[in-house]
Each structure stands twice: as structure tokens, then as C-alpha cells.
Amino acid sequence: MENVALFAGALALLVYALAFASPYGLRVLTVAGVYALAAFGFQIVFGLGGALSLAQGAFFGVGAYVTGILGSRHGLGFEATFPLSMLVPLLLALPVGLAVLRLESHYFALATLGIAQVLHLLAVNLPELTGGSNGLAGVPAVVLFGWAVPRGLPMAGLVWGLVALGGLVGWRLTHGKLGRSLTMLRDDPLAAGTLGLDVGRLRLTAFGISALFAGAAGALAVHTQRVVSPEVLEFPVMVSILTIAIVGGRGRMAGAVLGAVLLLHLPEWFRFLERGYLVVYGAALLLTVLLAPDGLTGLLGRAAGRLFGRPARALPEAREPPPSVSEDGLTVEGLAKSFGGLQAVDGVSLELRPGSITGLIGPNGSGKTTVINLLSGLERPDAGRVRLGGRDVTGARADRLAHAGLARSFQAAILPEGTGVLEAVAAARLAVDPDAATAEAHARWALDRLGVGDLAGQSCDGLPAALRRRVELARAVVRRPAVLLLDEPAAGLTDGEKAELAALLRELAGEGMAVLLVEHDMGFLLPLAGRVLCLDRGRVIYDGPADGVRRDATVAAAYLGRAGDLQ
Ligand SMILES: Nc1ncnc2c1ncn2[C@@H]1O[C@H](COP(=O)(O)OP(=O)(O)OP(=O)(O)O)[C@@H](O)[C@H]1O
User: Where are the transmembrane segments (predicted)?
Assistant: First the structure.
């Protein structure tokens, strides 16, 4: 269906360009292609990665200036200027990205906006290099195999040829491991780290790719206009790219094309309204954003789905992933963490041996989740030592710990809305499997293992709580971890479901996994766990066999009068 729509769209553009477009119309179409190319990169960094990079306009401008300066001042040809126009923004993006990519979203947006401001100032104030406010004229035409590509249809053809190529590259990236990893990162950055994804490296890669696309677009813009001026570094360029991505549909290459064609043509279509056109144009944009929050391509996709039904998803054959290799489990000594003045975890020591199930209990707020967060790398300990698989991993990042064989679940099962069950589970293998198809085959195995293989073709949206928990557990199990940390996995389950979960956990431990269970439900936990630790105000107040917990006076005292009760 998607392919038919793409083909129809491409054909319509071709017919318009060949038979109907005036020279001016061809120029607008060419510029639309240039913006589509810039928006492809933005779809990757913002649409998929969720990082509102306001540097896309700056990278566009840098690409434009590289072609402008090298072309008009040094007479270099397209074959040299075009790759350099992509390379220079990339070289700028890497150090800038390293410096700003770890900032929180709005600070990141501001920092990237600053880049454009600085570059604009440089462009205006370095006239010997850039031509100052007037810019540089006389940028040569693109010369291909000795033929100077004239403006009009040939230039439009060249630009749209590159749009087709760029769109294909972008489409492959978005549908492969990178795109899926970025989507996971956007939807749930915390979980992404615990699934082994290197958040920093992924963001930097997306930022770099966005710069490559923007630089290419900037170069083509200059060849189309044959001049370069500080205008290419001004904010309207960035606003146009952002609008194109949002109106067209976040994260979709087809959305970038549709958005660019519409954004560039709407002012032309409304021009007869003279000064009133801006009002209508603004209202049309506002309506699109309000009525189609996932953009026009999202709207069209949903409409097509309703009309023609969703095509059945071809499911991969289940394949068993290799288990993590680890003879030793996890050993923790003197773990401590405070938040401000509050000592959340205070000198906790524990050992998770392969093949064992250990329970971690304690009243509400006693530090159980913080222990799991410390062990899985979401918090850094203030003190203590953690050894995993025989190696010291104290303070290691979540993705490193995941690679070392640790998996965890979260108290509130987080599955990204709008994602398929199979994709959500496969996300946990993206960091280790060679490609997305292998990750999906492994995910299929995990879903079968959890007894929910029939959910593979479904969406995560609207799944009942018990099934969501299973899918989330499948996401941990699919990693075949050596150590599995589960934060209240039985919450909200019926007695029958709890019994099934208990059987599964026994099976996993029987295969050599070391399991840590944080639980309030003693009826579930005590028959399952060999050993139980009880925390109170961050300290271990009981560490012994499960059947001794109920008789222990300190444990009973800790639970008395607290929100959590020893059921
Ligand atoms: N990021 C944080 N910043 C400040 N305080 C925190 C943070 N995380 C946890 N705390 C505090 O640390 C203490 C321990 O919290 P934690 O969530 O680990 O307890 P818990 O035993 O898991 O509780 P529950 O059973 O309710 O899940 C609480 O007082 C909590 O408010």
C-alpha cells in the first residue's frame, strides 16, 4: 500500500514537472526537493531520535557556504564541493554533538540554536571569506560529465534524483537497526540503556547523519540560486525544516517529501489572497498539526488502513538466542546511595548466584528500587563494589552492564505506544544482533517462551496489564541474561497468572540464571525464593532463608505501621 502511494506520488510529481510546471513552478519544485533532503536528516535526529536539534538549519547553511566559497572563489567543481559540503557539517557536528548531546531536551535545543547564531555572525563578519552581508555571487552551475546542468527541468531532475537516493538511504536507515534503536531511545531513554543501547553514541550518529543530509541540501540550494548569503543561516530555514517534518509526519521519509512539497507550494496556491495569504497559510498549518498530530502521512496511513485493512505482518521463524556466558553471578558489597540528605541505600551487600532466586523485600520507600537502579546502572553508587561475571562493574553505564549479562524489568511495565509487540521485544536485541530481522526472530522465541507467541503480530497499545507484564518480561528474557532483576513482576496478576510466572522463574533459574525479585507479595515470593533480604531505610535488616522471614521480629517491626504490609 505504502509503495503504491509512493509510486503514485512520484508519478504525479513527474507528470507535473514534465507537462504542467512553468519555469517558476520548476524552481519552486527544485527548492522543495532541496528542503526534502534537509528534512530527511532532521527526521532521523528529531523524528526518530527525539532530539530537537535546531542545528539542522546551521548545517544547511554550512553546506551552502562550503559550495559557495569553494565554487565561486576557488572555482572548484561539483564533484569536489558536494562531498565537502556534506563532510564539513559532519566534522562540525561531531565535536558539537559530543559537547551538547547529553543536555536535557530544551537545553539541547537552545544549545543547537546557538550554533546557527554563531555561524550567522561569522558569515556576516568575515567578508573576505564569505562576502559578508551581501554574500557571494557567481556560484557555478553543477557540471556533470562535462555538461553544465541548466536551471529548470534538468536541475529539478538532478535535485529530485538526489532526493530519491537520499530518501532510499534514509528509509533503509529508519527501518534498520539504527532507526529502531533511535525510536527506542526516543520513547524510553532509561529503558534503552538497560537494553544495551549506547545512548550517547546513537544520538551522535543521528546528529552526524542529519548534518550530512543538511549539508547536501545546502549545497544544492546554492547551485539552484547561484548565490550564497547569510540568509541560509537564518532561523526561517530551520523553522521550515521543522514544519516540514511535523506536517509531513515525524520520522517518515515520505513525510519529509510531502511536507516539503506542500510547504513550498502552499504560499503559491494562496498567493491570490494577497496579504491575507499568511493568515490562511498559518491556519492551514495549525489545522494540520491539530487534526493530524502524527502528520499527513500518518493520517493518510490510518485512512488507508481503515479502507483497505492492515496488511498482515510477515512474522519471522522463532530462533533461540545464545545465552550470556557467565559462570559467576553478581556480588555486591557495601552499596550506598543518598539523594540529598536522604540515605536511600546504606551498605547493602548481597550475592546472586547462578541458578538462585533471591527475594528483596522491605516497606515502601526502603530502597529496593534504588538497589535495582544501582545494579542496573541507572544510578551511580556513592560507595560499594559490584562484581558481575567475575569483573568489577562498579559505576558502569547501563548499556555496559546489559552487555555484561544483566537484564531488568521496571515496576511500571513500559512498552512504547504505537509499537508492535514483536518490535518492542526485538528492541532488546538490537545492541547485540547483527540486524533487525535476527532480533525479531529472537524476539519471537522469547514471546513463545513466555506463552504469548500469538501476540507477536499485535500492537502494544491497549494490551491488558497481565499481557504487558509478560511482554516486558520477554524483553528481559530475550537477552538470555546471566542476572535478571525483576521489580514487582507479580503486581496486578491473578493467582493463576502468578503461578505461571513462578513456574517460569523457576525454569529460568533452573537454566542457570541468577534472579533477584523485588516483591511485596509474600505469598508469591516466599515459596519461590531460596534466600530473602529485607531492607529498612536502606539497610539490610534480614538476610536469610525465605521461611524465616515471617518469624523474624525485626522484619515484623519494620513493616508495622508502614504503608507496605507483610501479606
Ligand atoms: N531519584 C531520587 N531522588 C530523590 N529521592 C529518591 C530518588 N529515588 C528514590 N528516592 C527516595 O529514596 C527512598 C527509597 O526509594 P525506593 O524507590 O528505592 O524505595 P522502594 O523500597 O523501592 O519503595 P516502593 O516499595 O514504594 O517501590 C525513598 O525515600 C525515595 O523517595
Answer: 35-68, 80-101, 107-124, 155-174, 204-223, 235-264, 276-293
Pick from 337, 368, 537 the residue to mutate for probing ligand 1's pocket: most ligand atoms within 8 Å of its CB.
368
What's the pLDDT tens digit per position in 320-337? 888 776 667 899 999 999
Amino acid at 291: L
Q: 3-class secondary structure for 233-275?
A: HCHHHHHHHHHHHHHHCCCCHHHHHHHHHHHHHHHHHCHHHHH
Rounded Cα distance between 509 and 506, Å, is 5
Cα 345 to ligand 1 centroid, rounded to whole Å: 9
- Are 247 and 285 a contacting pair, CB within 8 Å? yes
Provide the pLDDT for residue 21.
Answer: 82
What pLDDT is attached to residue 563?
44
The whole-angstrom separation of Cα 524 and Cα 469 is 16
- Tell me the DSSP string of 149-216: --TTHHHHHHHHHHHHHHHHHHHHHHHSHHHHHHHHHHH-HHHHHHTT--HHHHHHHHHHHHHHHHHH
344 CA from centroid of ligand 1 (Å): 7
300 contacts: CB under 8 Å, gap ≥ 6: 5
**Within 10 Å of residue 40's Cβ, how many Cβ atoms?**
33
Q: Burial letters for 491-510: b for 16+ Cβ neighbours within 10 Å, e otherwise?
A: bebeeebbebbbebbeebbe
Is the CB of 365 within 6 Å of ligand 1? yes
Q: Quick check: CB of 337 below 6 Å from ligand 1?
A: no
pLDDT at 311: 67
Specify whether domain 330-405+481-561 bears CATH 3.40.50.720: no
What is d(CA 362, CA 566) in angstroms, rounded to the nearest whole number?
9
* Residue 564 pLDDT: 45
* CATH class in words for 25-308: mainly alpha
> Whose alpha carbon is nearest atom 11 of ligand 1?
344
Please, are residues 169 and 39 in contact by the beta-carbon 8 Å criterion? Answer: no
Q: Is 370 touching ligand 1 by the criterion CB < 6 Å?
A: yes
Q: Where are the domains of the chain?
A: 25-308, 330-405+481-561
Residue to probe by mutation, ligand 1, list 335, 339, 485, most atoms within 8 Å of CB:
339
Q: Which residue has the cell 546542468?
A: 149
Mean pLDDT split into 10-residue runs, the chain, 567 residues: 75 86 90 96 92 92 95 90 96 90 80 90 91 88 86 92 95 91 87 89 94 97 92 90 91 92 85 78 83 86 79 78 77 93 91 92 92 93 90 91 89 76 91 90 92 86 84 90 91 87 91 91 90 92 89 83 50
429 in Cβ contact with 466 (< 8 Å): no
Angstrom distance (rounded) from CA 112 to CA 97: 9
Q: Which residue has the cell 504469548?
A: 452
Euclidean distance between CA atoms 39 and 36, whole angstroms: 5
Nearest CA to 325 out of 515, 513, 472, 517 is that of: 513
Atom of ligand 1 nearest to the CA of 373: 18
Note whether ipTM > 0.90 here.
yes
Residue of the CA atom closest to atom 25 of ligand 1: 364
